[in-house]
């Protein structure tokens, strides 16, 4: 069977050359006589993989030396709790920007540990834009400010990263890490579940400024303490070894394309193609304010639930799959992460035009 264009919000497509390389190395990794899944995580083979993965990510994102890279488990959802557990120290208050479903889940976890102050929100407009965040909104006594840089469900993204001064900025970057160039030094912590732009599910990447490590209380379990993983080079216990190997291949693949500069160029072109089609259409509309649109997740709606359903059914027959919008937004959502080829977006927009001709 042919591969389809999978527009899923996650787990999402992986680059075909990466899958093919993994397939080639599946049963005998570099003459070890084993697959990566069977290698000891204490072996030289695996040491080379995990160190290579870290270096690959450092090179791509130009991560400064005073930041640690941690390869963890538990998903972005576990970071919702780990962030307050590790950063609060003697402080009691934390600032959050509420830009959608994932922000709300992050806040809900933080409420177990801290007084959560929502400094900006777009909830009153159904999260269809990114609210402005200025320095004077931030409580200087807050342990950190939390943002969701790309809102996977709502299809919005921060165009500029807010300046939070001396209060560390923490970002859930699950759905747009590696999609464009960013300045890591603006952040205290960046975290991301791997299954959108990095690799298979099961791996969570945390990039953390060194001075933010070591503030967890005695009651914080070892596995939930950044210091445990930082001290052990992410090998405190058995890490998700195969997912780390896949991530390393993805990092090498992106570097081979020309790094994040080239990745960003491709992503902006793909997104423009889709938004231009929606704008020109008399059938489809975008629910998102123009200045807040994501280049990773593109929701669009037709005038009726019946038309949406017909679109989804016919798209599937053309190998354009998982385009159903999140239940909170409805309509369609095309997730066009790094690994979605331009040809996939071209196939989608030509189908949209064809569908519109038949349904106007
Ligand atoms: C997918 C996603 C999550 C949840 O990630 P898990 O790894 O499944 O916990 C959190 N935040 C954002 C922005 C996401 O896109």
From TrEMBL:
It catalyses: 4-(phosphooxy)-L-threonine + 2-oxoglutarate = (R)-3-hydroxy-2-oxo-4-phosphooxybutanoate + L-glutamate; O-phospho-L-serine + 2-oxoglutarate = 3-phosphooxypyruvate + L-glutamate. It is found in: Cytoplasm. Signal peptide: none annotated. Pyridoxal 5'-phosphate binds at residues 76-77, 102, 152, 172, 195, 237-238. The modification N6-(pyridoxal phosphate)lysine is found at residue 196. Pathway: Amino-acid biosynthesis; L-serine biosynthesis; L-serine from 3-phospho-D-glycerate: step 2/3. Binds 1 pyridoxal phosphate per subunit. Its cofactor is pyridoxal 5'-phosphate. GO terms for cellular component: cytoplasm. One of its GO terms (biological process) is L-serine biosynthetic process. Coiled coil: none annotated. Its EC number is 2.6.1.52. Keywords: Amino-acid biosynthesis, Aminotransferase, Cytoplasm, Pyridoxal phosphate, Serine biosynthesis, Transferase. It comes from the Bacteria. L-glutamate binds at residue 42. InterPro entries: Aminotrans_V_dom, Aminotrans_V_PyrdxlP_BS, Pser_aminoTfrase, PyrdxlP-dep_Trfase, PyrdxlP-dep_Trfase_major, PyrdxlP-dep_Trfase_small. Residues 4-348 form the Aminotransferase class V domain. It is an enzyme of class 2 (transferase). HAMAP family: SerC_aminotrans_5 (MF_00160). Homodimer. Catalyzes the reversible conversion of 3-phosphohydroxypyruvate to phosphoserine and of 3-hydroxy-2-oxo-4-phosphonooxybutanoate to phosphohydroxythreonine. Belongs to the class-V pyridoxal-phosphate-dependent aminotransferase family. SerC subfamily. This is Phosphoserine aminotransferase. It comes from Salimicrobium halophilum.
């Amino acid at each position: 069977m042919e591969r389809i264009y999978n527009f899923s919000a996650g787990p999402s497509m992986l680059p075909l050359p990466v899958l093919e390389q993994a397939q080639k190395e599946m049963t005998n990794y570099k003459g070890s006589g084993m697959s990566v899944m069977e290698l000891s995580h204490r072996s030289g083979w695996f040491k080379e993989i995990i160190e290579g993965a870290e270096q690959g990510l450092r090179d791509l994102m130009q991560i400064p030396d005073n930041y640690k890279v941690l390869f963890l488990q538990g998903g972005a959802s576990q970071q919702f709790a780990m962030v307050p557990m590790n950063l609060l120290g003697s402080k009691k208050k934390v600032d959050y920007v509420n830009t959608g479903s994932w922000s709300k889940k992050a806040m809900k976890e933080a409420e177990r540990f801290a007084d959560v102050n929502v400094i900006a929100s777009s909830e009153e407009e159904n999260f269809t834009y990114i609210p402005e965040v200025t320095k004077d909104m931030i409580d200087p006594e807050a342990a950190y400010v939390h943002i969701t840089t790309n809102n996977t469900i709502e299809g919005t993204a921060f165009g500029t990263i807010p300046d939070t001064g001396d209060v560390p900025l923490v970002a859930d970057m699950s759905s747009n890490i590696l999609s464009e160039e960013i300045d890591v030094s603006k952040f205290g912590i960046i975290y991301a579940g791997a299954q959108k732009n990095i690799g298979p599910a099961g791996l969570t990447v945390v990039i953390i400024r060194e001075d933010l490590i070591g503030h967890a209380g005695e009651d914080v379990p070892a596995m939930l303490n950044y210091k445990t993983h930082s001290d052990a080079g992410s090998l405190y216990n058995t890490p998700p070894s195969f997912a780390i190997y896949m991530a390393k291949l993805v990092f090498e693949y992106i570097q081979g394309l020309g790094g994040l500069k080239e990745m960003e160029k491709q992503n902006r072109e793909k997104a423009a193609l889709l938004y231009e089609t929606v704008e020109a259409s008399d059938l489809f509309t975008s629910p998102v304010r123009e200045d807040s649109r994501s280049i990773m997740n593109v929701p669009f709606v037709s005038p009726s639930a019946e038309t949406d359903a017909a679109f989804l059914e016919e798209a599937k027959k053309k190998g354009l799959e998982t385009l159903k919008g999140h239940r909170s937004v409805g309509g369609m959502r095309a997730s066009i992460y790094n690994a979605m080829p331009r040809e996939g977006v071209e196939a989608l927009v030509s189908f949209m035009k064809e569908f519109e001709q038949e349904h106007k």
